[in-house]
Amino acid sequence: MRLSVQTAPFDLGAEANAFAAAQTTAGAVVTFTGIVRDNGGTLSAMEIEHYPGMTERAIAAIMEEAIRRWSLADALVIHRHGRLAAQEPIMMVATAAPHRADAFAAAEFLMDYLKSRAPFWKKEIGADGAAWVAAKDEDEAALTRW
Amino acid sequence: MRLSVQTAPFDLGAEANAFAAAQTTAGAVVTFTGIVRDNGGTLSAMEIEHYPGMTERAIAAIMEEAIRRWSLADALVIHRHGRLAAQEPIMMVATAAPHRADAFAAAEFLMDYLKSRAPFWKKEIGADGAAWVAAKDEDEAALTRW
Amino acid sequence: MIEILYFAWVRERIGLPREKVATQAATVRDLIAELSAREERYAMAFADLESLRVALDQELSDFDAPLSGVREVAFFPPMTGG
Amino acid sequence: MIEILYFAWVRERIGLPREKVATQAATVRDLIAELSAREERYAMAFADLESLRVALDQELSDFDAPLSGVREVAFFPPMTGG
């Protein structure tokens, strides 16, 4: 299991290849990558604030729970903070399991919990000014299925 | 949408990067990669037979259905045939959508249908001889949820 | 003339990947009966229809489907891709 | 002394990212009342508890949690990562 909270961009392809190559028992690897949408050209940048210390603790706890529940062979979370431009990757998760249903479920679980339980806050910066992204009811609701 | 049925290995990372870089409206990219498991060291190779012509038609139809149902921005399927060694990637799918729930659902749908409706057959070659992989009831059952 | 294709263990049991057959069979089931009557290896390959699938002109179909107008019939076990 | 951290718009409304506070507040709710009585900017930041979350020593908690033994309290809006 690897967890990185960083300002630097990451290479989705290099991360996915390294993750897959490290697997010896897993037949299924799932990745999710979140990309900054430009909202039809209105967004010039995204700023991500986080809570150093708590961020790593919260993500590690979510990953350990996912690994336990779906008997994952491995899991990876990379989440950036700081200033990001449109089209840049914000974060990725990867899961590896013997069977695909577990790899998919664990990746969705990680995403649902990261969205609502890891201390990150996004601010959209556009031509008209800056605004904090509001939490969505549907993201909170997504947690109830687990 | 891109579809490739090929004997050559593919580079998961390069494919994932190219797929993600091509997205302009999607905030969510999901990939699934299937890797040949070595079954605890008993498998020496996997041989994948397919039905040229029908394979491409069947996969294209499944992809079009996924794109329509989940309003995907894009989809990718790569599936190898011929002889594969343990640890080699067999296939991958990628989906891109504005929101993660659609990208995840479409990727799982593609996998479920590829497993049971695309004309591929796997033969495991081990020290004790070769055996065709039997279809699993659970793979057929997985289709009923869509 | 219909072209018949065999895949995976069906191909191995029958011993060839494809053949052209002159037939008046009305349905897939009739064609299977014709082939099974020919030789033991066909009878063996078609012994258990539950474990077989059929495609007509590259579309999945069923054993009661009519063959009229069909140019390509393929027999194979349940698919195991992915 | 308790260290209090503010994030996102809570930080912006209060105008600082962290501060040390001497308090006898028994619960988070008591601490919020104390801070809100201080200055308008605190009262504004804490006006709607529904839109606030609290973490005690880096674990999500709730407004009725006791503060005894707690060294770090953080206030922030609902999280929006991923």
List the helices and strands and how they pair.
The complex is a heterotetramer, with two copies of chain A (146 residues) and two copies of chain C (82 residues).
Chain A: E1 2-6, H1 12-21, E2 28-35, E3 43-50, H2 54-69, E4 74-80, E5 82-85, E6 89-97, H3 100-117, E7 120-126, E8 129-132, H4 137-142
Parallel strand pairs in A: 1-4
Antiparallel strand pairs in A: 2-6, 3-5, 3-7, 4-6, 7-8
Helix pairs in contact in A: 2-3
Chain C: E1 2-6, H1 8-14, E2 18-21, H2 28-38, H3 40-45, E3 53-56, E4 59-61, E5 72-76
Parallel strand pairs in C: 1-5
Antiparallel strand pairs in C: 1-2, 3-4, 3-5
Overview of the structural elements:
Chain A is built from four helices and eight strands. Chain A has 146 residues and is α+β, with helices and mostly antiparallel strands. A four-stranded mixed sheet of chain A has the order 1-4-6-2, with helices on both faces. Chain A has a four-stranded antiparallel sheet with strand order 5-3-7-8, with no helix packed on it. Chain C is α+β, with helices and mostly antiparallel strands. Chain C has a single domain (2-76), classed as Ubiquitin-like (UB roll) (Roll), CATH 3.10.20.30. A five-stranded mixed sheet of chain C has the order 2-1-5-3-4. Chain C is globular, with a radius of gyration of 12 Å. Chain C starts with a strand and ends in a 6-residue tail after the last strand. The mean pLDDT of chain C is 97. The A-B interface holds A 11-17, 20, 23-38, 87, 89, 98, 100-101, 103-104, 107-108, 111, 142 and B 11-17, 20, 23-38, 87, 89, 98, 100-101, 103-104, 107-108, 111, 142. β2 of chain A pairs antiparallel with β2 (28-35) of chain B.
Query: What's the helix count of chain A?
Result: 4
Q: What is the CA-atom radius of gyration of chain A, in angstroms?
A: 16 Å
Give the proportion of residues in helices of chain C: 25-40%
- Output the CATH topology of chain C: Ubiquitin-like (UB roll)
Mind describing the biggest β-sheet of chain A? 4 strands, mixed
Order of helices and strands of chain C: EHEHHEEE
Instruction: Specify the oligomeric state.
Output: heterotetramer
Helix vs. strand class of chain A: alpha+beta
CATH superfamily of chain A: Molybdopterin biosynthesis MoaE subunit
Per CATH, the class of chain C reads: Alpha Beta
Distance, first to last CA of chain C:
34 Å
Note the overall shape of chain A: globular
- Percent of residues in beta strands of chain A: 35-45%
